[in-house]
Specification:
heterotrimer, A mainly alpha (268), B alpha/beta (280), C mainly alpha (258), A: 268 residues, MetI-like fold, 81% helix, B: 280 residues, alpha/beta, Rossmann fold, 10 strands
Chain lengths: 268, 280, 258
């Protein structure tokens, strides 16, 4: 800890944050343009966020704040769970069977260019309710990222490992569980981290377009109700939740792939 | 533990083996009229330049590839022909050039993989046998709980050999296993392999491009021509076992090397001029 | 290497793939014909095509939507490159700068681009500016991080060699650093383009007054699901074309890569 406090890196990092906050504060308070004066200033935001009686109803002391967080987090993780439940098997299948890959690749190629958020209106039409639509669009983004990275992971497996396993008497089932899945796992986890990040991006947009609660909705609501500090609170919370989610995945990966950690000192 | 009787299995006869890749298109002839015999328990080395087809031959014996003509007999029974392609199995285990230990399993898990997956041994029995073999093969039992990524390449190769031997194979196939190692490690591996072969005498087919290595390790050295590969020459190594490094200075060794070197260099030069790449 | 970039390789005709796509279209048409519950609100591919041909392909307003969206994508994307590439280079080459600035970037990066919409609208004088800004945010972080990674991946030995041969820092930068990061720039551009389209469409849905995203949204709002389909397909094609162009650019930047 002492070493951290003394390190140049730590102080520069703090200086960087401080600089940005200072510029933000200064520009809001002192630049005589409406663009700037309308913006919430950092001190105001922090005060609001930490106040037991927030002027606009959202702070770390209000239940409503956590309700929104919970709603968004639930959607994100539900979509993510679906994406990995479907995406990993699909990716493995595509990686293993070139015949299946030919079919699947074309379909995926057809649907992939459509930006996930363009699906929102259609999803609302087809699925029962806005909730399902938002989760679906989030799922779609995470699904593509997971499938593609799983596919890459399977292709990247050293052919010698498969041959060795066959020599040692592995059945097809053994190959799948003993070689393919562990072999592809590093790339799968890279995909999962990307999928999680993309899921939060998509979720935020989906909520801003079509939801009734959640952090994305909160941003639009605060904007419409002219509660500007709350906008920044919601933005920051979104970023934080996304970051924590990715970190959870990374840690899980590190735990599952202990062998990588031990060998190279990092699971990357 | 192992006696001469145990090594009676594993006699290999290769008769006019041929392999053509992409017969309808590029028609690359990897092997042509390849013929030789390996007696049970014999250590046979195959020497040849890059791309000559020696790995193809090994792949066919191991079951990763298929003959287009000729046949291979294992213990006098037709084993591989253009019609029969036996799947890879524990009777012919391969030790790979760049090492193929499973990085996500510990050394012990790797070594017991074969017998437990084939359900030939219980996990407990497999573990006992594994620890015993690892210990005999240079005290590797101390590394049983480590991951391959934590071991040097020399140790990895040694573990891989134990993993192969655990399956009581009829034939042990080594595909240029020490190619990527430096001279010092290689010398240590040679000594190790000879010791292991003395402890567990199996039929060995050892692929290499290094003539000295081949003569030092083997009972018989086969020189393969550049593509299309066929056996150009066979050399019976007259050195006694156990081999020792001072034999490398002996008259007998130098004479054998002289006999064969010209052939090997001629093929190497041909391959070099053609710009051959490794096939398999 | 991130798999989401989707490179293009010439390969034999994928008849199986064609079969799959055909089956998909047929299934869609059949589901609509037989009025399967849930799907009934949506038009089939044939109907969509007919409506498109009759009412949209000839209308100037439709093609203007294309232009509006493309313009936003282009502007946001180009600005992101103009700021992101130099920033990535600085972060990669100057340690002090990196220690100062990188933590801030890491803090801002997880915030979804669309979350910036309200602040953007408040800040920028026109709607157009605010949408382009969102587009810029989407691509900016991606290109910066990719260039940064690209610089970090340069082998120290190359730089040491150049120094020992007497090259000045400027020379090293021009002759070694810049060419080495070209592939990373290419990857960043390809990834950035896909994200940019995603962001533009959503931004238009939330806050735009024209463009393909707006078109799709209006189809939804006015309960004309045909328009929704037409909008989505148009967006898909537009996005696909953009990624094609950028992929071509990426290959030109680094022709030695797979």
């Amino acid at each position: 800890m002492g070493a951290v406090l003394r390190s140049r890196k730590f102080w520069l990092m703090l200086a960087g944050y401080g600089l940005v906050l200072a510029i933000w504060y200064a520009s809001v308070k002192w630049v005589p343009l409406k663009s700037f004066t309308r913006m919430p200033d950092p001190l105001g935001v922090i005060r609001e966020w930490m106040s037991p009686e927030p002027a606009y109803g959202i702070s770390i002391f209000t239940a409503a704040y956590y309700k929104h967080i919970f709603a968004s987090t639930l959607r994100a993780w539900t979509a993510f769970a679906l994406a990995l439940g479907l995406g990993i098997p699909l990716g493995i299948l595509m990686g293993w069977s070139s015949r299946f890959n030919a079919y699947a690749e074309a379909l995926v190629g057809l649907l992939r260019p459509v930006p996930p958020l363009a699906w929102v209106p259609l999803a609302i039409l087809l699925l029962p309710g806005a909730e399902a639509a938002v989760v679906f669009v989030t799922f779609l983004v995470a699904f593509f990222a997971t499938t593609l990275n799983t596919l890459v992971g399977v292709h990247a497996i050293d052919a010698d490992h498969i041959r060795a396993a066959k020599c040692l008497g592995a059945t097809r089932r053994d190959l799948l569980f003993d070689v393919i899945i562990p072999g592809a796992l590093p790339q799968i986890f890279t995909g999962l981290q990307i999928a999680m990040g993309a899921a939060w991006f998509s979720l935020a947009a989906g909520e801003m377009i079509a939801a009734q609660y959640g952090l994305g909705f909160l941003i639009m609501d605060a904007y419409n109700l002219i509660q500007y500090p709350t906008i920044v609170i919601a933005m920051g919370t979104l970023g934080l939740m996304g970051f924590i989610s990715s970190a959870v995945i990374r840690q899980t990966g590190d735990r599952l792939m202990r062998w990588r950690l031990e060998a190279t000192g990092s699971a990357r | 533990m192992s006696t001469a009787t145990e090594a009676r299995h594993g006699g290999l006869s290769v008769r006019r083996a041929g392999k053509i890749y992409d017969p309808g298109g590029a028609a690359v002839v990897a092997l042509e009229e390849c013929t030789f015999d390996v007696a049970p328990g014999e250590f046979a080395a195959i020497v040849g330049p890059s791309g000559c087809g020696k790995s193809t031959l090994l792949n066919i014996i191991a079951g990763f590839d298929r003959l287009t003509s000729g046949e291979v007999l294992l213990d006098d029974a037709p084993f591989a022909t253009s019609a029969i392609a036996p799947p890879p199995g524990p009777d012919r285990v391969v030790v790979f050039q760049n090492g193929a230990l499973f990085p996500w399993m510990s050394v012990l898990e790797n070594v017991i993989y074969g017998p437990t997956r084939q359900q030939v041994l219980t996990a407990h029995a497999a573990r006992d046998k594994a620890m015993d073999m690892l210990r005999r093969c240079g005290g590797l039992d101390t590394a049983a709980e480590r991951f391959p990524g934590q071991l040097s390449s020399g140790m990895q190769r040694r573990v891989e050999i134990v993993r192969a031997l655990m399956n009581e194979p009829r034939v042990l196939l080594l595909d240029e296993p020490f190619r990527a190692m430096d001279t010092v490690s290689k010398a240590a591996m040679h000594r190790h392999l000879l010791e292991v072969h003395a402890l567990y005498p199996k039929t060995v087919i050892f692929i290499t491009h290094d003539l000295e290595e081949a003569i030092y390790l083997a009972d018989t050295v086969y020189v393969m021509t550049t593509r299309p590969g066929r056996i150009k020459r066979a050399l019976r190594v007259s050195l006694e076992r156990p081999r020792s490094r001072d034999m490398l200075a002996s008259q007998a060794y130098l004479e054998m090397k002289r006999q064969v070197a010209a052939d090997v260099h001629e093929e190497a030069r041909k391959a070099f001029e053609r710009g051959e790449r490794e096939l398999a | 290497m991130n798999a989401a970039s989707g490179g293009y390789r010439r390969r034999p005709l994928n008849w199986r793939g064609g079969l799959a796509v055909g089956a998909f279209l047929v299934l869609w048409e059949l589901l609509v014909r037989f009025k399967v519950p849930g799907i009934a609100t949506v038009p089939g591919p044939i109907e969509s095509l007919v409506v498109f041909w009759n009412k949209y392909a000839t209308q100037a307003a439709y093609w203007q939507s294309w232009l509006a969206s493309f313009r936003r994508v282009l502007l946001g994307f180009v600005f992101a490159q103009l700021l992101g590439i130099p920033l990535g280079l600085l972060l990669g080459t100057r340690d002090r700068f990196r220690e100062l600035v990188f933590p801030v970037i890491e803090l801002l990066r997880p915030i979804p681009p669309l979350a910036w919409v309200p602040l953007s609208i408040l800040f920028w004088p026109t709607h157009e500016f605010s949408i382009v800004f969102i587009t810029f945010i989407g691509a900016f972080f991606i290109i910066t991080i990719n260039v940064f990674d690209g610089v970090r991946a340069i082998r120290r030995e190359h730089i040491w060699l150049a120094r020992s041969l007497g090259a000045s820092e400027a020379r090293i930068f021009r002759r070694i650093v810049l060419p080495s990061v070209l592939p990373a720039i290419g990857v960043g551009m390809t990834l950035g383009m896909a994200v940019t389209w995603n962001v533009v469409i959503a931004a238009e849905m939330i806050a735009g007054d024209n463009g393909l995203g707006r078109l799709t949204w209006e189809g939804y709002v006015s309960h004309t699901s045909t328009v929704v389909i037409i909008g989505m397909v148009s967006i898909g094609i537009a996005g696909y074309l953009s990624v094609l162009v950028i992929s071509w650019l990426e290959r030109r930047l680094a022709p030695w890569r797979d």
